[in-house]
Design brief:
Chain lengths: 140, 140
C-alpha cells in the first residue's frame, strides 16, 4: 500500500538512458578498425598467362622477340636498345604491323626489376599481345 | 544590471551531443575504405612501373610473395614452387576469376619468378598481376 502511493507519484518522470557514453563506444570501434585493417593497395601490371600446351600458331613474321640478358641488355629483333628506348621502338613496330605478338624472353639470371622495366615499356607502348616465354637454357 | 549579475554564474557549455556523430562518420569512412589484414606478407620493395594501374575487385586476389633471396610465401607460409601449384589450383577451382598478385622484390632473380609463373600455368591460374609501385614523384 505504501509502494502504490510512491509509484503513482513517479509516473510523471520518464525513464532516461544516459547517452553520454555513445561517443566513447564509437571511438573504441574506430580504434579497433584502425588497428586491424589496412588501406587496400593493390596496384600493378596485369598479364594473362598462356595455357600450358596451347601453342597458338602464329606466323613468324608477326612475332617480335624481345630478349633480355642476365646483365640487363635488351635485344629487340636483332637491335640492341637501352630500356628507355624500348617504348618508342615498339610503338614504331606496332605502327608497321598492329597484329604483332611480342615474345618476351628474359634470362633466368636477370633481376626481376629489369623484366618489370621492359614489361612497363611494352605496356606504355600499348602493346596488346605480350607473351612471356620461359627461357630454359643458361648463358643469357 | 541585476540580470547580468545573475548570468555570471552559468559556465560556458560546449554541447557534446555531436561527438558520437563525428565518431560514427569516421567509422563509416574506415569501414568502406579499408580491408581486414589477412596476411603479413613479406618485407619487400616492389619494383616501380609507370604503367601501374589500380586493381579493383579485391575479393578475387591471392598474393604470392617473393623476397630478394628467392624465398616464396603464400598466406604467410614458406613454400616451394610445387606447393604453389596445388594451393593455386584449389583456389582457382573455387573461384575462376582468381587474380594472382605476384608481390616480388625488385632484386629477386627472375628465375624464381619464372618458376612460379610456370607453376601458375600448371595450376591454370592464368590471370596474373605483377605488383608494382608508382615511380617516385608520380601519384595515382
Amino acid at each position: 500500500m505504501a509502494l502504490k502511493s510512491k509509484l503513482s507519484t513517479r509516473t510523471q518522470s520518464k525513464p532516461d538512458i544516459p547517452t553520454a557514453s555513445m561517443g566513447d563506444i564509437a571511438f573504441l570501434i574506430i580504434i579497433f578498425f584502425m588497428t586491424t585493417s589496412i588501406f587496400s593497395r593493390d596496384k600493378g601490371l596485369k598479364i594473362v598467362l598462356p595455357e600450358k600446351g596451347e601453342e597458338v600458331k602464329i606466323k613468324s613474321e608477326n612475332i617480335m622477340t624481345v630478349r633480355v640478358s642476365s646483365k640487363g641488355k635488351v635485344l629487340i629483333g636483332d637491335q640492341v636498345v637501352e630500356i628507355p628506348q624500348v617504348r618508342e621502338l615498339i610503338i614504331k613496330k606496332l605502327a608497321e604491323n598492329p597484329d604483332i605478338v611480342i615474345a618476351l624472353k628474359v634470362s633466368r639470371g636477370a633481376k626481376y626489376r629489369t623484366m618489370i622495366d621492359v614489361f612497363d615499356q611494352l605496356k606504355m607502348a600499348k602493346a596488346e599481345r605480350i607473351s612471356l616465354m620461359p627461357v630454359r637454357e643458361e648463358g643469357g | 544590471m541585476k540580470k547580468i549579475a545573475k548570468q555570471r554564474r552559468s559556465r560556458p557549455d560546449i554541447p557534446m551531443a555531436s561527438t558520437s556523430d563525428i565518431a560514427f562518420l569516421l567509422i563509416i569512412f574506415f569501414m568502406v575504405s579499408t580491408v581486414f589484414r589477412k596476411e603479413q606478407g613479406m618485407n619487400i620493395t616492389l619494383p616501380e612501373a609507370e604503367a601501374t594501374e589500380r586493381i579493383l575487385k579485391r575479393r578475387n586476389v591471392s598474393n604470392v610473395w617473393v623476397d630478394k633471396t628467392g624465398r616464396t610465401t603464400v598466406n604467410d607460409n614458406l613454400v616451394k614452387t610445387d606447393i604453389v601449384t596445388s594451393i593455386m589450383a584449389e583456389r582457382v577451382i573455387e573461384n575462376p576469376d582468381l587474380v594472382v598478385m605476384m608481390q616480388a622484390d625488385r632484386d629477386a632473380a627472375y628465375g624464381t619468378v619464372t618458376d612460379i609463373l610456370e607453376a601458375l600455368k600448371d595450376a591454370r591460374a592464368l590471370k596474373v598481376t605483377f605488383a608494382t609501385d608508382y615511380p617516385k614523384g608520380q601519384g595515382g
